[in-house]
Design a protein that fits this description.
Elements lengths: L10 H11 L1 H20 L16 H13 L20 H17 L10
Length: 118
């Protein structure tokens, strides 16, 4: 009975044979490459910080400006969206409910700043 397996000689086969023959060199090279890229990538963390990205003219940038100017704070850690059941947000009932909600949040979280009056 003869061995009829086809001989493989493609690029991946040659790479596999090389890696198998020189496994220690491949392992050391891989480790050094990993350490070098990790050191290089560690300095990129500040450039990858998404909280510093702004799109001028968007509502989020305008909201951040209001937070900074009127509430003397930075980016929100809590955001609430409240819609009135009837009427619009300028209706007296909606204004009272909004203020009551803000007072409740302030009562539970005393570190929340009060709005500065101009």
């Amino acid at each position: 009975m003869t061995d009829e397996r086809p001989q493989m000689s493609g690029p991946l086969t040659r790479l596999g044979r090389f890696a198998a023959r020189r496994s220690a060199a491949v392992l050391i090279t891989t480790l050094l490459l990993f350490l070098g890229l990790a050191a290089y990538g560690a300095g990129a963390q500040d450039d990858l910080d998404l909280s510093r990205w702004d799109a001028p003219g968007t509502e989020s940038v305008e909201a951040a400006g209001v937070l900074r100017e009127e509430f003397a704070t930075g980016n929100p850690s809590l955001a609430l969206l409240v819609t009135p059941g009837t009427g619009d947000v300028d209706a007296p009932e909606a204004v009272r409910a909004g203020r009551a909600l803000a007072d409740e949040v302030r009562r539970r979280r005393p570190e929340c700043p009060r709005r500065r009056r101009n």
